[in-house]
Amino acid sequence: MAFLKRSPWMIHYDGSSCNGCDIEVLACLTPVYDVERFGIVNTGNPKHADIFLLTGAVNEQNREVVRNIYDQMPEPKVVVAVGICATSGGIFRECYNILGGADKVLPVDVYVPGCAARPESIIDGVVKALAVLEEKRRALPPRARRGRRAEASAQGGNA
Amino acid sequence: MNVNAFLAAYGVRILSAALYVLLAPLFGGLLAGVDRRITARMQGRKGPPLLQPFYDVAKLFEKRRVSVNKLQNFFVVLFLVFLVFTGALFFAGGDLLLFIFAFTLAALFFISAAYAANSPYSAIGAERELLQMMAYEPMVLLTAVGFYMATGSFQVGDILFAKGPAVASIPALFLGFCYVLTFKFRKSPFDLSTSHHGHQEIVKGITTEFSGSSLALIEIAHWYEATFLIAFVALFFVWGGNPWSVLLGLGVALVVYFLEILIDNTFARVKWQLAIQSAWIVAGTTGFLNLLVLTLVQGGAGWLS
Amino acid sequence: MNRDTVRTVTAIEPLEALAVAQHRRLGGWRLVQMHGTRVDGATEVNYAYALDGALEILRARVPDGTAIPSITGIYFAAFHYENELQDLFGLKVTDLAVDYKGHFYKLKQTTPYRPDLGVEGIGSVEAPRVPMAEDAEPAATPRDAHGRPVPARIAEGITGNRTIVPFGPQHPVLPEPIHLDLVLEDEKVVEAIPSIGFIHRGLEKLVEKRDFVDYVYVAERICGICSFMHGMGYCLAVENTMGIEVPKRADYLRTVLAEMARIHNHTMWLGLVADAFGFESLFMHSWRVREIILDVFEEITGGRVIFSICRIGGLRRDVDERQIDLLMKALDRIEKELEPLVSAFTQEYSVVHRMTGVGVLSKAEAYELGALGPMLRASGWALDTRLLGYAAYDDLRFAPVVETAGDCMARTKVRIRETAQSIGLIRQAVAKLPPGEIAAPVKGTPNGEFMARVEQPRGEAIYYVRGNGTRFLERFRVRTPTFANVPALVKTLQGCQLADVPMLVLTIDPCISCTER
Ligand code: SF4
Hints:
The structure holds 3 protein chains of 3 kinds. Chain B has one domain (3-298). Helices cover 73% and strands 0% of the residues of chain B. Chain B is built from 11 helices and no strands. Chain B has helices at residues 3-42, 52-62, 70-91, 96-117, 120-151, 156-160, 166-169, 171-184, 212-235, 243-264, 272-298. The radius of gyration of chain B is 19 Å and the shape is globular. In chain C, a hairpin with a 2-residue loop joins strand 12 (447-456) and strand 13. In chain C, helix 5 runs antiparallel to helix 6. The two termini of chain C are 29 Å apart. Classes of the chains: A alpha/beta, B mainly alpha, C alpha+beta. The structure holds iron/sulfur cluster. Iron/sulfur cluster (SF4) sits between chains A (17-18, 20-21, 55-56, 83-85, 90-91, 115-116) and C (221, 224, 306).
C-alpha cells in the first residue's frame, strides 16, 4: 500500500532566498491554506522528512548545508524547488555569490515557478512531488535488504 | 490447579489483557486522530483525516531507517514491549505499584534510546524527559497510595469492585493526577522533551534521531500509553464492578482528554523549573491534604473496601 | 519635503577615523553604517554618523595595500561593517575586536569588489573558517554537528558539563538560516557565537549590471517581508539624487502601503514568536489575521509578498475607491480579530511568565550596541526614523511607541502598539489622500549620491546610491536593521536559558536575507 502519499512530511530550508517564498511556504501551514488537510506536516527535522522544500538560489555557504539536510533524510525522498530563484537562480542569477538554483546542488524532482511562488502553486508542487515519491518508493530494493544498507550508509553520512 | 479452575480464576483477566494488547493501538490511534482534528479546529483549521495517525505510522514503516546505531533500536523495542506489558498488567487487574514501576522502566528505556543516539538535541531531550519524570512521579505514586487508602487494595482487580468510586474519597488526588497527565500526553505547557509540533528549540527533542520504523514503534507505543492512561483516569470512577460506572469513567476520561487538548492550545511551553515546581506543589497540596483528610476523617485505609 | 536635510560629506585621512569616532561617540552620535566604494584604484571607506535629523558622512580614501584602524574599540557594533570590508574589498582592518579574517561570508568569489585580488571558487576548496579565533586552527579541529569547525577558544572551554549545541542554519523555529554555536552549561547558554552568510547573494553589486530603473525589482527582493519598503527606500535615494519631485498622491499611497507592510510584518512576527515558545494555536491565529492584510495587498498590487508597485518617481498603479473601501474594512477586521490575540500575549499566564524579564537590554546597552527599531524603543528610546518625515509622514500625527522594560515582553508590546499605530496612520493618510498624478516622469540619469533613511518594521534601514551619470549606478548600499541588531542579540543570549534562545532570536525580528543581501 502506498501510505507515503497520504502522509508526506516536509522540511523547509531557505537556501539564500529573499524570504518571500519562505513565508509563503509557512503560510501553507496556516488556517487559510492548511496543508495538514492532506496529512502534510512540517517536521523541521530532516530525519523525519519525506519532502524537501528548498527556496532560494543557493549560495556558496549553503551548498554543504543543503547537501547535509538532504543526506540526512531517509529514502525515499523528493526535492521541490520553490520559486524562480530555486528553479534557475531567478533575479539573483548574476550575483557573484550565487550558484544558480537548487539543481546545482541537489537532484530536483519538482519545480514550482513564481516570484514569490503562491501558496496554491506550492501545494500543487507538493502534490506533484507525491507522485514522484511513490515512484521512488516502488524503485527501492525490498525490505530485507533495506535496513542493513541504510544503516551502513547512515554510518558514513551522519558520523 | 487444573485448567478449568485456572481459567475460572484468571480467564477474564487474561481476556481483558489480550483485548488490550490487540485493541489499544486502534483506540490510541483513533484518539490521536481525533486529537489532531480538534486541535486543528481550535486553531481555525480543518485538520487531517481522522485516520491520519495510522497513515503516518504505515508510511514510517515504508521508509528506510536511518539509525545512528543498533543499540538505539534495541531500546526502542524494549520501550514498546514494556509499555505493552504495563498496560496489560493494568488490564489484567494487576498491582498498581507494579504497574507504576513497569511504566517508569519503559520510560527509562525510551530515555536510554535517546541517549544512545548521541546527538545534542536528543541528549537534551532525554535530559528534559528525566526532569519531567521527576516532576510527575511523586504525583503518580501518591495517587496509587490514595487508591489504597480509599479502597484498601493496590490491585486494580479489587479497586474495580470497591464499594464506591475512588474519586469520592480522593477527589483532590484525581485533580492532581489530571494535572500531571499533561506531562504524559506531552501537551503544552509541559511538552518539554518533545513536542507534537515540530517547532522547538531542540528540534524534535527526544525523538529527533529516530526515523522510519523506529519512529513508528515509538508512535505505536504512545498509543498504548494513551489507552491505559485513559483507563487509569476511568478507574477513579468505577465501583462494584458496575458496567455503567465503567462507561461513566470512560466518559469522564474522554472529557479530561478534551481538556488536555484545550490546555495544549491555550498555553505556551514553560521552562523545566516551573514545570517541576508546579507539579510538586500540586502533588504536595492535593496529595497530602487528601491523604491527611482521609486518614483523619475516615480512620485509615480501606473505607470503600 | 524632507526634514532629513542636514547632511555633510567630509573627507578625512584613514588614520583620522579613530579620533573622529571618539569625538562622535562623546557627542552622542550613533554609528549608522560603514561601507566601501571603489573609486579610481582606491577604496573609499565611508563612516556615517547620525544625531537626530543630522547625518554626516566621513570619507577616507584608502590607497590599495594600506590598512585602516578598526573603530570597534569605540563602536563595538562596527565589527560587522569592518569584517565586511575585509571580505568584499580585501581591505585590511587592524585591531578588529572580532576578526573573522576574511571569512565573514563564505564567498564563491573572494573580494568581489577587488576582482584583481579575488580568487574564483575558493569557497569550494574548503577554506579554513575560523570565526572569532585569534590563531590558526589546531590540527584536530573539533567540529559541531554540522561538521563546521568549532572555534579553538570555545573548544578549549568544552570540559565537564559544557556542550556545544548548534542552533541553525536549518532549524524548525527559524524561517531563515542563521547559525549560532551555543555553548551550554546544562541548560544555560554561556556563550553564543553567530556565523552568518547563508543568504549573502551579493545583490548590491548587481546594480552595475541592471539599469537603475529596473533595479527597483532587485531592491524589493532584498527581503520578501519588507519588500515594499526596500523598493521605496531605493526609490527615495535615487529620486533625491536626481531631484525628482514625487507627486503628493504617490507619497500618501506609499505611506499607506508602507504601514500595511508594517501590519503584515508585526502580525507575522507575533505568530513566529508564539511558535518560538510553543504556543501553536496563537501562531495559527496570528497568521490568519495576517492573511487579511495580504488580501488587500493582492487586491491593490496583484502580489501577496512581492508587489512591484513602487517605481522611481512614484507608483505604477493607482488605488481606486473600491480598494480603499476594502482596505478600511480590512483594518476594522484586523482591529477586532487582534484584540483577543493581544490579550493572550499580554495577559496569559504562561506567556507572561516566558517573556517578562527575559532578555533584558538596558537603555544604555541598547544605544551602545547600536540596536534599532522596536528593539531600541522597547528599551526606552523614542527614536523613529519616520519622524524625519519622508513620504507623507510629515503631514501625519504620530509619536514613537516606547516601552521601558527592555525585555521580550516590552518588545512584544511595542510591536502590538505599533500595529495599532499603523492602522491609525493609514486611516489618517486615507482621509487626507490628495487626488492627482501618481508618478513623476524620470528624465536623465542619476549623477551624485544620496543616503536615504526609512523606518522599516524592524528599524531604520539605510539606502545609499551613487550614480555617475550613466544608466548603471556606481554603488548601491543597503544597511538593514537586523544587521545593527545582531550585537544586541548576542548580548541578550549570554547567560540565557536554552529554552529562551528561539524567543530571544525572534525578538530582534531577524531578517537574515535583508542583513546579508
Ligand atoms: S523566487 Fe522571488 S520571492 Fe522567491 S525567493 Fe526568489 S526572489 Fe524571493
